[in-house]
Amino acid sequence: MSRRRIETVSVASVYPLYVAKAQKKGRTKAEVDEILCWLTGHSQQSLAEQLATDVDFATFFATAPAPNAARSLITGTICGVRIETIGDPVVREIRYADKLVDELAKGRPMHKILRTGE
Fold first, then answer.
1. For the residues 87-108, what does the mean pLDDT come to?
2. What is the pLDDT of residues 7-66, one digit of tens each?
3. What is the gyration radius of the CA atoms in the chain, in angstroms?
4. Which of the 8 DSSP states describes residue 3?
5. In whole angstroms, what is the distance from residue 16 CA to residue 83 CA?
6. Distance linking the first and last C-alpha atoms of the chain
7. Cβ neighbours of residue 116 closer than 8 Å, sequence gap 6 or more
8. Helix-helix angle 29-40:89-105, to 10 degrees
9. 115: phi then psi, degrees, rounded to nearest 5
10. Structure confidence at residue 118 as a pLDDT band (50, 70, 90)
11. Which domains does the chain have, with CATH numbers?
12. Three-class SS state of 82
């Protein structure tokens, strides 16, 4: 059996894992949604629609209404790889989401996660 590329995995299949990771550390589904909306420009409603359609990551990020320009400020490592060195744009976007959810689960304040500087 061949291994599916991460870009073809549905966002809806990973989303519950993001929520579970956050909730295990006392954070909320609403905060996970806020992160994904900030990253992509989706509204709460359009995010819910994307999750309901079982869209894959490549399509989710390619059709994002307004990718946040500040996402380039997301740096560091995820799965042992420096985010800023990832060449594949879809994989980099996925790792941005992973990193933000990790920061949420580690208790980082939301304004720092969203790079608002407040």
1. 94
2. 788 999 999 999 999 999 999 999 999 999 999 999 999 999 999 998 999 999 999 999
3. 14
4. P
5. 23
6. 48
7. 70
8. 150
9. 55, 40
10. low
11. 6-113 (1.10.8.290)
12. strand
